[in-house]
Amino acid sequence: MSEEKNKRLFIKINRNNLPQVKDKYPFIYLERGRLEIDDSSVKWIDSEANLVRLPIAMLNAILLGPGTSITHEAVKVITASNCMICWVGEDSMLFYAVGQSPTSDTRNMRKQMELAINGKKRVEVARRMFSRRFPQENVSQKSLKELMGMEGLRVRRLYESKAKEYGVGWKGRQYTPGKFELGDLTNQILTSSNAALYGILTSAIYSLGYSPHVGFVHSGSPLPFVYDMADLYKEDLCIDLAFSLTYEMGGKYNKHRVVEDFRKRVIQNKLLENIGKDITMALGK
Q: If we measure between CA atoms, which residue out of 217, 241, 210 comes closest to residue 134?
């Protein structure tokens, strides 16, 4: 029996030999195809019948976009490797749902909770986030209320500065839930790009083992940690994009142009590479 055991070609996957979250690739986005299992691996078959075998143990999350299907067996194997499954909109622009193994690693979430429920440590995390955004300011003694006041003033000035830079009229941030079309062009682009950024961040935060529901600056909203992190990236990814496109679009909203230009900025800014590092910076690990 022992000789037969020694002849085994494969090593059984368990929690001890799985790569840690920090060593994995954050996530991979798939659309228009099918995920299933064959004798040796999880395989992706796209709409043109191309086949790619996925290194599931090295992925934190799989983002399933429009036109995808997945077999029951594939779900079982993927979650057994602590790889999360997320259902998202086209180009990962919206986040719909997540499937997570009940045995997934909770170390990062526990650390996040410990920091959030301790008043002193929560403010320290908030200060690190604001130090990143206000490198010229000394925020070491600022309270949470004072930090949020800095943020409000800075964003209002930023809107006015971008409006002047691109020669665009600006009457303030306006968004009515469910009535997207009532906003002016700049506000429509801001709403769309913000939603896209929230979708990407929600997927990433889940995939890294944190909770989007436990924030440090924001509170009382559905995804406070997502909003905390989004403030690190909004200036270039959303605000500058909105004013520059308002100038170029000539008054007519173009969804495809917004999506394409937002995606280019995500790639140029290496957003997916930086999210994990920025969370580590903020939480002080």
A: 217
